[in-house]
Specification:
The chain is of the alpha/beta class. It has a single domain, classed as Uracil-DNA glycosylase-like domain (Uracil-DNA Glycosylase, subunit E, 3-Layer(aba) Sandwich), CATH 3.40.470. It has eight helices and seven strands. The strands form two sheets. It has a five-stranded mixed beta sheet with strand order 2-1-5-7-6, sandwiched between helices. It has a two-stranded antiparallel sheet with strand order 3-4. Strand 3 and strand 4 form a beta hairpin. Helix 3 packs across helix 8.
Length: 220
């Protein structure tokens, strides 16, 4: 049996506890997050990229961190990975406008090479500093189904031992009646060098999202 998430003092379905959760509605939280200085990443990004979607969404998709396009527009999943995600959602029969989409980390982290800004993974301390915002989103939205896209989100939900390659697509209890699973991040699919592997991973992403759509029908 897979390990259950660690107990969290706020009842938030995260494997890694948080010390505090900011108060307020999603609109208030979004405003507060704009001024967050809990880690150095605010110096990188153009703006905080907070979650987007209905306040009472039954499904929350959690990605890893914003990229260049998200940083410019202030909206999650609007770049190439977001376009691939939209395609996968469409094939799975899920309406993006009915979902709440967010990221584990809310600022774009990058390194410069010439004039280019290249994505750089947020470190453990930066992820920990941003976890309070994700916890607040989970508490406000109270999704019944939570999908972790990529290793960072999956490990935030299920612990550091979780591996997408061997545990993706498996439902796990998250407390408060919620269920969660993890699957490929669209950007990971795009980075795969071989077309055959990209095609297979995209198929697995769609299959996992179809499982979400099926679970939604059971809730209805």
């Amino acid at each position: 049996m897979p390990p259950r998430p660690l107990p969290n003092p706020f009842g938030v379905p995260l494997a890694k506890p948080v010390d505090e959760v900011p108060a307020g509605t999603l609109t208030t939280l979004r405003h507060k997050a704009r001024g967050c200085r809990a880690c150095p990443l605010w110096r990188y990004g153009t703006q905080t990229v907070f979650g987007q979607g209905p306040a009472a969404a039954q499904v929350m998709l959690i990605g890893e961190q914003p990229g260049l396009h998200e940083d410019r527009e202030g909206v999650p999943f609007v770049g190439p990975a977001g376009q691939l995600l939209d395609r996968a959602l469409g094939e799975a029969g899920l309406d993006r406008s009915a979902l709440y989409l967010t990221n584990t980390v809310k600022h774009f982290k990058y390194e410069t090479r010439g004039t280019a800004k290249l994505h750089k993974r947020a470190n453990a301390a930066e992820q920990a500093a941003c976890r309070m915002w994700l916890a607040a989103e989970l508490l406000r939205v109270k999704p019944k189904l939570v999908v972790g896209l990529g290793a960072m989100a999956a490990q935030t939900m299920f612990g550091n031992a979780f591996r997408i390659t061997r545990e993706r697509g498996v439902w796990r209890p998250l407390g408060e009646g919620a269920q969660g699973l993890a699957t490929w991040h669209p950007s990971a699919v795009l980075r795969m060098p071989e077309e055959q592997k990209r095609h297979a991973a995209f198929g697995e992403l769609v299959a996992d999202l179809r499982a979400v759509a099926g679970a939604l029908e059971e809730w209805a």
